[in-house]
Amino acid sequence: MANRLADATSPYLLQHQDNPVDWWPWSPEAFDEARRRDVPVLISVGYAACHWCQ
């Protein structure tokens, strides 16, 4: 699964560009999509260790 972080400028976001998660960067489009799908928005606070990295 590709996500939308490949064009990010943040080194933190770029670390997660190949994760098998449908990540979206903070943007109006991300919130529009969440509203359209009626799903919650989960926000990462920058913790870089995760299941996919281990």
Notes on the structure:
The chain contains 2 helices and no strands. It has helices at residues 11-15, 28-37. The two termini are 19 Å apart. It comes from Dactylosporangium sucinum. Residues 3-54 form the Spermatogenesis-associated protein 20-like TRX domain. This is Spermatogenesis-associated protein 20-like TRX domain-containing protein. InterPro entries: Ssp411, Ssp411-like_TRX, Thioredoxin-like_sf.
For this entry, give a set of tags.
Spermatogenesis-associated protein 20-like TRX domain-containing protein, Thioredoxin-like_sf, globular, 0% strand, mainly alpha, 54 residues, single chain, Ssp411, 28% helix
Summarize the structure.
28% of the residues lie in helices and 0% in strands. It contains two helices and no strands. The longest helix is centred in the middle third of the chain and has 10 residues, at 28-37.
Largest sheet: none
* Overall mean confidence score, pLDDT: 83
Global Rg: 12 Å
Q: H/E element string? A: HH
Low-confidence stretches: none
Derived structural class: mainly alpha
Helix content: 25-40%
Morphology = globular
Number of strands: 0
Strand content: under 5%
- In whole angstroms, the N-to-C terminal distance is 19 Å
SSE blueprint and pairings:
Layout: H1 11-15, H2 28-37
